[in-house]
Amino acid sequence: MRIQRLLLGACLCGLLACESSPDSGSLPIPTSVEQDSSLYADDAYLLRNGKVAGRPKMTQVYEPYSLDSLNIPFINNKLLNALKRNERLLHLTQGRRNYRLGNLRVNYKELQQTVDILKSWQFTKPLGLSRYLDAYQIWGNDRFGNVRFTGYYTPVIKVSRTPDETFRYPIYSRPLDWKGPLPTRAQIESKGLLSGKGLELAYAADKVDIYYMQLQGSGYVEYPDGSRELFSYNGTNRHPYRSIEKYLLGRKDLDVPRLSVEGIKSFLRGKPELTDTVLFQNPSYTFFIRRRSAAPSGAGNVPLTANYSIAVDRRYIPLGSCLLAAFPVFDHKKQRVVRHEYRILVAQDVGGAIRGPGHVDFYTGIGQAAARQAGNLNSYGQLWLLLPKKSRPAFISNSAQ
Q1: Is residue 396 part of a domain?
Q2: Closest CA to 327 of 15, 19, 16, 8
Q3: Is-contact 133 388, C-beta < 8 A?
Q4: Any domain includes 7
Q5: Residue whose C-alpha is closest to residue 153's, from 3, 7, 365
Q6: Kind and range of the H or E element at 213?
Q7: How is 321-339 classified by DSSP, letter by letter?
Q8: Under-50 pLDDT residues of the chain
Q9: Looking at the domain assignment, is residue 2 inside a domain?
Q10: Domain boundary among 257, 291, 325
């Protein structure tokens, strides 16, 4: 399970978005983005950040939407594996059998049936799926159906089992016998309040690497002999998360070229005297536990699948659900979202910074390439919850307003 993750460029809606994937169900590239598929029909039009404007305001958290007007992508082997992990997740969470999601009531059996239906179209283009599934569009935070997509990943950082002149920054496990409130990040790192208590799991060469692994909630550590271990989320100090990006954005005297993971790392490497000042703006601190033979997993306790798993607010999207996304495609030359492509995504994780029906976090994988992809994703798309067609309970009219 992960906690607050970096919401890259939270104040900058025009940051880069993820590139198109070859196994996605892409919408045709239009001559004018305003005319791209049914998403931009009638008076609707596409904004630079991926929002679709000019549509009527939605009246319910979930509204029925014609699945025939949406392009269901090919169900390839990676998606099939993600669906199988959803099956395991649902098996592990059978105790939670009923969900109220705004105006919808959903039960465990329906989530399982959705997985089964999608699996039956494996390795084929799922034509005619609308005979078996219904789509319900979530209204987002603006109630116009615009959902923000950000990204997260699993970092890999170099460490040592023992401290030396290079590897001198400890990675801590959670203290189980601490009396009273746990210390802040500044108190832990500047005053050493946890040192010498047997909580050190390993030592890193750069505290900024530790910081970003904490934001992602887990990460691989690599020892000098090349061996790796997974450090998983083991709780926090329960202090509030505060964005260092917002702090840097507000410092007009500092020239930070890019508010991305690599951009901030590069800036702090050039000004190491500012590292503590910047990092200590966030008092929240994440602890880890060693997992010797595990893959990165989410709150659903199943391994995450890169480019398919998402983190959600489970008050609106239950873990184990399958969703169709109109995913933003960003054109780097034009510096804007030019269209959306359809992807099937699976809800397998949660995050402390994911709040409400208008934001999901997209898992991009492990390592530097995944970090770049996650850092470049901060745009808007749409989401539809997929549910079996023949067993729908009645809507509760306008109950969530």
Answers
A1: no
A2: 19
A3: yes
A4: no
A5: 365
A6: helix 207-216
A7: -EEEEEEEEEETTTTEEEE
A8: 1-36, 391-401
A9: no
A10: 291
